[in-house]
Each structure stands twice: as structure tokens, then as C-alpha cells.
Amino acid sequence: MSLTQHDSSWRGVSARVIPYVFFSFLCYLTIGVQLAILPSFVHLRLGYSTVLAGLVISAEYVATVLSRPWSGWVVDRLGAKKGVVYGLAMTGASGVLTLAAAFLVHTPWLGLAVLLAGRLMLGGAESLVTTGATIWGIVTVGAENTATVISWNGISTYGGLAVGAPLGVALESGLGFWAIGVFVIALGFGALAMALRRSPVPVVHGEKQPFHHVLGRVAPFGVGLALGSVGFGVLATFITLDFASRHWTGAAFALSAFGGSFVCARLVFSRLINRVGGFRVGMACFAVESLGLATLWLAHARPVAFLGAALTGFGFSLVFPSLGVEAVRPVAPQDRGTALGAYGVFMDFSLMAVGPGAGAVIAGYGYPAIYLCALVSVLAALGLTGILAARAGRSG
């Protein structure tokens, strides 16, 4: 196939995939509007420590980790559409709890409890929506286009974060924290109405493997994903408090720089996965992400921090699909939803641990130290990916 034909085919597949991964964009938009707001709300309005502020963010990932086996089961056995529908209904319901927390600031323990409940529900919703939307797209365009579907799903998710962060700041500053809850309610249930109108895809039949069997097969790749996700976790959770501690403005735009560069890198370079292989792309991504985290660690001016955030997003952009293609490749079609869920568990677990872990590091060593810790983690992911690539080369 010529380069022109390849590009034309890629555009055609992309056009068919986008309507499905758009649901991931809407789900992550509800997550994005909260990212730049919740740590400050918990720390400054409710009066809790940075460790608890990180825990509120991480609570979503706790629920995502716990719900991955269930979401894979729902998608593989009941269908991708039902996974998305159930997830969007939970997204809207999480907004109800977030709205309630806005009116409980004078009872901090209750406000925190309600907020945590909403975050847990949103974590389960994220698992269902992203797994369902990805499988919906893969079944529609064929397994040979798995890398394209995963890449577009990532563009949708992190595009939602990039748009949502400044939007959340604008809503909170203009109307108050309650507006975040109303926005999540409207978007969750509005997206649900859209999903119900789309046609389902058939469920792939065949003997289903238990979740723990599939988990073991994708584990080596998942560990690399977990190590590489630490950079995103510390940036997303603590960049707003880091900027506040330095008396800098524009923390939401640091998140936008991360998300914008992430999306741009996926649009431009996602086709490289099929051309040169997932391992090579993954190693290049980890190298760039390491450069971004080193820049954040050493940053003493706001523009340098923006550059570090952008480089981190650029490097992290293709980590999930590059290792994900290699992880899912040997898995039977009827277990792909479970495989994607199992693979995603490692990222969820990483992000779940980053919140309280990084909060403890901040308490002892200050904000720059979390970027150094993340840098070490990503360099470990780079080394592991090299080992996996060498092993695949020997077995091939």
C-alpha cells in the first residue's frame, strides 16, 4: 500500500471510529472540569491536607481499578453499547453527588464523604465508557485497526481533560463550585441520550477466559504502562497546588498544555505504531516524557513549567496504545474487552497510588520532588520496554 493510500485508509477508519470514542471525550470532559478545582476545594475550602486532596483525586482511580473486571465482563458479554450506556448513567449520577458536596462546606466531613462517593462512582463510569467505546470502535472497523481505535480513544480522553480544566476554572470562578455538579449532570445524561440512539455491534462469541488469566498475559506491558503513568498522575493531581505555592497563575493552562500536546502527538504520530511497532514508539515516548518531567523538576519560572507540562503530554501521548497493541495482540477476539480492562488496571492502580504517595512526598520534600520521583519511574518504564522488545525479538 502506498503512503497516500495508507493515509486515505487511516482517514476513512478514523471517520468511522470518532462517533464512538466521542463518548469517551464527553466522559473525560466531566473529569477534566474537576481536575483543576477539586484539590483546591478540598484543601482550601474544606480545610483538609494535601494528602487528602490527593486522595480525593485518586478515589476515582480506586473505583476504576475495582470495576475493570466488571466493565470487561459487561462489554464482552452484554455488548459495547450497554457498557457505554451504563457508564454514562453513572457519570450523570456522580454529578448529583458533586452538586450536593457544594452545599456541605460548613460540614467538612460530610462534604468530603459525599465528594468521595461521587468520585468513586465516576471511576466506575470511566471504566465502562472507555472500554465500551473502544470495543464498539474495534468491532466496527476490524481488529487490524486496533491501534487506530485506541489512539483516537486517547485523543478523546485527554482532549476532554485539556478542554475541561480551564472550563472548570471558568465555571467555578464565575458561578461557584455548584456549577461543576450541574455541568456533570447535564453532560452525563445528555451523552446517555445520544448513546441510546446509536446501533449496537454484535457480541463476539466464544469461550471466555477468566479475568485473572487475561491479567497475567498483559501484566508485563501493564507494568510499563503503570510506571509511565506516574508523570501524568503527579501533574494532573498537584500542578494546581504547585502553582499556588509558587504564587503563579495559569495552572489550568498547564493541564491544557499537557492535553493539547498529547492530542497533537497522537494526531501526527499514531500511525507510527503500525509502521515501526509498539515497542519502538513506546521507548521514544518514555524518553520524551522523561525530558518533560526533568524540565518540571528544575523549573523556576512559569513558562518553563508550561514547557515541561507540554513535553510530558507529548511523551505520554502514545504510551497506552503502543504497549496496548503489543499486549492485546495475542488475545482472542472474544476476550479483547477483558484484555483492555486488565491492561487499563495497571494505569488505574498507578494513578490511584500517586495521589496519597505524592502528597506524602510533598509534605516531606516539597513539590519539585514529585517530578523527580516521576522521572525515575518513567526511566524504569523505558528500561522495561527495552527488555520486552528484546524478548519479543528473540521469540519472533
CATH architecture assignment name: Up-down Bundle
Share of β-strand residues: under 5%
User: What are the secondary-structure elements, in order, as H or E?
Assistant: HHHHHHHHHHHHHHH
What does the average pLDDT come to?
Answer: 85
Largest sheet: none
Per CATH, the class reads Mainly Alpha
Note the total helix count: 15
The number of distinct β-strands equals: 0
Shape: globular
How large, in whole angstroms, is the Cα Rg?
20 Å
Structural class: mainly alpha
> How many structural domains does the protein architecture include?
1
CATH topology name, in short, is: Growth Hormone, Chain: A
Weakly predicted, low-confidence segments? 1-5
Secondary structure: helix percent: over 70%
CATH level 4 superfamily: MFS general substrate transporter like domains
First CA to last CA: what distance? 24 Å
Mind explaining what this structure looks like?
With 396 residues, the chain is mainly α. The protein has a single domain, classed as Growth Hormone, Chain: A (Up-down Bundle), CATH 1.20.1250.20. The protein has helices spanning 3-35, 38-45, 50-78, 80-102, 108-141, 146-174, 178-196, 211-245, 251-269, 272-276, 278-298, 302-316, 319-328, 336-365, 368-395. α3 packs antiparallel against α4, α3 packs parallel to α5 and α8 (211-245) runs antiparallel to α12 (302-316). The longest helix has 35 residues, at 211-245. It is globular. Residues 1-5 have low confidence and may be disordered.
